[in-house]
Amino acid sequence: MTAFSYRTGALHAEAVPMEALAEAVGTPFYCYAATAIETAYTDFAGALSGLPATVCYALKANGNLAVVRTLARLGAGADVVSGGELQIALAAGVPTEKIVFAGVGKTAAEMAAGLDAGILQFNVESLPELELLSQVAQDKGLRAPVALRINPDVDARTHKNISTGKAENKFGIDLDQVPAVIERAAALPGLSVEGLAVHIGSQLTETAPYRAAFTRLIDLYRSLRTAGLPLRRLDFGGGLGITYRDETPPDMAAYANLVRELTTGLEADLVFEPGRRLVGNAGILVTRVLYVKDGAERRFVIVDAGMNDLIRPPLYDAWHEIVPVREPAANVDWAPVDVVGPVCESTDTFARQRSLPPLASGDLVAFRSTGAYSAVMASSYNCRPPAPEVLVRGSEFAVVRPRPDVAEIIARDTLPMWLEPADGAGEPIGEPIVVAGKAALGARGRSAR
Ligand code: LLP
Question: Which domain holds residue 290?
Answer without folding.
Answer: 4-29+281-403
